[in-house]
Amino acid sequence: MLNFIYYPVSFILWCWHKVFGFVLGDNNAIAWILAIMFLTFTVRGIMFKPFVNQVRSMKKMQEFAPELKKIQKKYANDKQRQAAEMQKLQREHGVNPLGSCLPMLLQIPVFIGLNWVLRSFTNKPLDQKANNYFFDHAGVESYVNAKLFGVNIGDAIHHASVLGGTGGGWNWNVAPVAIPLMILASVLTHLTARHSTARQAAAATEANPQAAMMQKLTMYVFPLGVLVFGAFFPIGLLVYWLSNNSWTLMQQRLVYTRIDKEEAAKKAEAKEKRDALAPKPGAKPKPGQKPAQQAKAADEDKPETGGATPASNGGGKRSSKAGSPHRFADQPQRPQNGTAQQRKKPASGGKNSGQKGSGQKRR
């Protein structure tokens, strides 16, 4: 039914086993463990791009978390309208809340496929087992004979039939190998989740209850589940879980460091642009003037050195040119007292002149 999952998983496992089996030997348990680990790394490498998109989506949600809180407060009594407005805001910012779960969801088919392929090696006696998907009879025999510290890597503490096992009682001889792997896998699951949630602001988790719930699940429930249900997983599956969480922790550190550097570079570039557009010290911005115009005006207002200074009148006053829109043309100076007396009509003619003038006035 799920052969479309089982065949790709078994093919990748077969390829890596051929590589490491050529070096270490086909029946060597280390070759099988390395094959399982590199199967994990191959799948995680394919999912690297969705993981980066997940981190960027979380970063965007932190930026508009205050707006989400406003919507929650505004529509506290109308949950339907609240959900619609939150989805609208997320679409405007290009954020898909389910995108953060995509890498985890993509790992579920791989886990199911690997669990089934590994159990299919031992679910039947070796003489009745012809092949196992991409593995022929020789490959099946190699897996069955591979032992790690005297324990077959296909064994589990309990082969629960609900998980694809053959049933039966408890195999405590597997516990010395399985329990340390279970503890390591549980601790790494917790550290991975803790490192991821430490990046998310408290405002973002308060604004998105789904994200807060997922944080609690990944930090406490999942590690506890690995510790409890790891007893039902074969050794090979515990190796997959351990290597998967090791890859995740390393990947998070690398991606977060890279994104932090990008954010710091963007902030430095924005600061340089603001400094370039800001007015220079001592320059007063004119009303309604833009920052770029202010910087240009400050350069124009600087006096040119070595040039001629504008002509000035006595007393240091600046002379205005004729035809200026702000001042009238310069008028000639008024004559002094002596000149004014010369311009007056001479009072000659004696009495007659005075009488004539007075007579004309009387008329």
UniProtKB/TrEMBL annotation:
It comes from Amycolatopsis bartoniae. The keyword Metal-binding does not apply. It is found in: Cell membrane; Membrane. GO terms for biological process: protein insertion into membrane; protein transport. The chain crosses the membrane at residues 5-24, 30-52, 95-118, 170-191, 220-242. It holds the Pfam family 60KD_IMP. GO terms for cellular component: plasma membrane. GO terms for molecular function: membrane insertase activity. Required for the insertion and/or proper folding and/or complex formation of integral membrane proteins into the membrane. Involved in integration of membrane proteins that insert both dependently and independently of the Sec translocase complex, as well as at least some lipoproteins. Aids folding of multispanning membrane proteins. Residues 32-256 form the Membrane insertase YidC/Oxa/ALB C-terminal domain. Keywords: Cell membrane, Chaperone, Membrane, Protein transport, Transmembrane, Transmembrane helix, Transport. It is a multi-pass membrane protein. Interacts with the Sec translocase complex via SecD. Specifically interacts with transmembrane segments of nascent integral membrane proteins during membrane integration. Residues 267-277 have a biased composition (Basic and acidic residues). This is Membrane protein insertase YidC. CDD domains: 5TM_YidC_Alb3. InterPro entries: YidC/ALB3/OXA1/COX18 (IPR001708), YidC/Oxa/ALB_C (IPR028055), YidC_ALB_C (IPR047196). Residues 267-363 are annotated as: Disordered. The keyword Ribonucleoprotein does not apply. Residues 278-296 have a biased composition (Low complexity). Signal peptide: none annotated. Belongs to the OXA1/ALB3/YidC family. Type 1 subfamily.
